[in-house]
Amino acid sequence: MVFTRGGRAVHALDRIGFEVADGAFVAIVGPSGCGKSTLLKLVAGLRQPTKGRITLYGRPVQGPRADVGIVFQSPVLLPWRTVIGNVMLPIDVLGLDRPSHRTKARELLALVGLAGFEEAYPQELSGGMQQRAAIARALVYDAPLLMMDEPFGALDAMTREQMNLEVQRIWSASGKTVVFITHSIPEAVFLADRIVVMSPRPGRVLSIIDNAAPRPRGLDDMSLPEFNRLVREIRQLLGSQGEAGGPH
Ligand SMILES: Nc1ncnc2c1ncn2[C@@H]1O[C@H](COP(=O)(O)OP(=O)(O)O)[C@@H](O)[C@H]1O
Ligand SMILES: [Mg+2]
Questions:
Q1: Could you give the 3-state DSSP secondary structure of residue 88?
Q2: How far apart are CA 180 and CA 194, in angstroms?
Q3: How remote is the CA of residue 173 from the centroid of ligand 2, in Å?
Q4: Which domains are delineated in the chain?
Q5: What is the pTM of this model?
Q6: Phi-psi region for residue 183, left (φ > 0), alpha (ψ -120 to 50) or beta?
Q7: Residues with CB under 6 A from ligand 1
Q8: Closest ligand to 38 CA?
Q9: Which of 4-8, 9-13, 134-138, 172-176 shows the highest mean pLDDT?
Q10: Which terminus of the chain is less hemmed in, N or C, by CB atoms within 10 Å?
Q11: What does the alpha-carbon distance between residue 125 and residue 77 come to, in Å, rounded to a whole number?
Q12: Region of poorest pLDDT, from 55-69, 84-98, 129-143
């Protein structure tokens, strides 16, 4: 993927190739600017690659599609819509049946811990609650693939740990495939079965690391030797790539 900015070519991604098994939890970790968000936008059909091809469920990606749910780094909720109104947004955009999806939206808000906040407005929620509403919105049209782009980057460490537990719970309850982008190595290891480690720009796949630790994983598992071994291995792969090597 090559961008042009001010007449200068920015080579964002190069020879990216990896497969994601159905129902798997895959994390993509790499330094800032290595092309993680670009990769997500390519897979979701929000951008076209300058070269190469992306296939999803056997179909080439040609434009935005209803089989991918996306959670962006900031929750981007519409301030004039209630929480449930925001969760229903994709249903309105895709022109799907409102009554059945409204029931679904309520169930999802309960699943992400927002029961009772259906009629609240985004500005009445904390950052973590807004992000959970954004997760419910990404789940409401039941896409089999959920892609999350550094969804907890703006949260404090404690809220972030709680959200990691939440995401693990939602993933095991929904049976979806999750691709989770982060620049936090411990977060990637905690959440994923498989971690795709990317190089600095132009982003390439440096290595793919499996984490077979049993589920559900608890926060205490982060002090296990095997957890720390994986974190160290990825940190060494990334070398001194700045923030990618740091803590949350
Ligand atoms: N629309 C764009 N136009 C020009 N350059 C871009 C655009 N989007 C991203 N880039 C560049 O592509 C590279 C990868 O960006 P991005 O995918 O956002 O990285 P990451 O998400 O890993 O931090 C960066 O150097 C960024 O500046
Ligand atoms: Mg990004």
A1: coil
A2: 10
A3: 27
A4: 2-67+145-245 (3.40.50.300), 77-142 (no CATH)
A5: 0.87
A6: alpha
A7: 3, 5, 10, 12, 30, 32-38, 201
A8: 1
A9: 134-138
A10: C
A11: 11
A12: 55-69
Residue nearest to atom 6 of ligand 1 (CA): 3
* CA-nearest residue, atom 25 of ligand 1: 33
Q: How far apart are CA 196 and CA 181, in angstroms?
A: 9
> Mean pLDDT throughout 157-175?
88
Ligand 1, closest atom to CA 41? 17
pLDDT range class, residue 245, cuts 50, 70, 90: very low
Half-sphere exposure of 180 (CA within 13 A, CB side): 29
Q: Are 75 and 123 in contact (CB under 8 A)?
A: no
Residue 30 Cα: closest atom of ligand 1: 22
CB atoms within 10 A of CB 27: 26
Confidence of residue 173 (pLDDT cuts 50, 70, 90): confident
What are the distances in angstroms from CA 67 to CA 44, 126, 145, 174, 179? 9, 29, 6, 15, 13
Both structure tokens of 218? 């608890």
d(CA 244, CA 242): 6
Non-local (6+) Cβ contacts of 207 within 8 A are 197, 234, 237
Burial 29-63 (b: 16+ CB within 10 A, else e): bbbeebbbbbbbbbbbbbbebeeeebebeeeebee
Q: How confident is the model at residue 160 (pLDDT cuts 50, 70, 90)?
A: confident
